[in-house]
Amino acid sequence: MTAQCDRRRWRCAGDDGMVAVLTVGLALGLFALAGLVIDGGRAITARQHAADLAGQAARAGADQLDLSAYRSTGIDRIDAPAARVAACAFVAAAEPADGCQATVTGDGVTVTVTTHTATVLLGLIGYDTFVTRGAATAHPERGVLTGTGP
User: Fold this and answer.
1) Taking the CB of residue 31, how many other CB atoms lie within 10 A of it?
2) Burial status of residue 83 (CB atoms within 10 A of its CB: 0-12, 13-18, 19 or more)
């Protein structure tokens, strides 16, 4: 089937509304791209925030030393229950809605923080929140080590 064209007006009868369809398609594509850029940036920021919070909580946990073991043996040993409580208490104080899991292995404290961040534009297509996780490990250190000494 061929379209009936009026040569004086450069218009064909079968082309009515094509610009509107193209405009709607391009607008939806640009909106989806903007959603990915904005919410993708929020996801990257949330992941970095979770990693920073996990690092700070791990250091708070690594500060919990078993002083009686240190006084009797001279070896730095982490008080595991106190370290887990201190690490997760730090996370709860900084971000009450975030999840925390702390484990003590050997001479280090490992903390995993789970965050839930709301989306801005992707919520319009049903993707309301995204979950990010950050993990860090800290070890207790005593004193400042330098290359020079007495």
Assistant:
1) 13
2) buried
- Residue spans of the domains in the chain: they are 16-138
Is the pLDDT score of 2 beyond 70? Answer: no
Tokens of 136: 């860090």
Query: What residue has token string 């690092």?
Result: 55
Q: Are 98 and 114 in contact (CB under 8 A)?
A: yes
Full-model pTM = 0.74
Segment 57-62 mean pLDDT: 95
96 phi and psi angles, rounded to 5 deg: -60, -25
Question: Helix H segments across 63-96?
Answer: 67-73, 80-94
Question: Distance (Å, rounded) from C-alpha 137 to C-alpha 34?
Answer: 36
Compute the mean pLDDT over every residue in the chain, rounded to the nearest whole number: 85
Residue 141 bridge partners (DSSP): none
Q: What is the bridge-based pairing of β-strands 99-105 and 108-118?
A: antiparallel
pLDDT by residue (tens digit) across 112-129?
A: 999 999 998 888 888 899
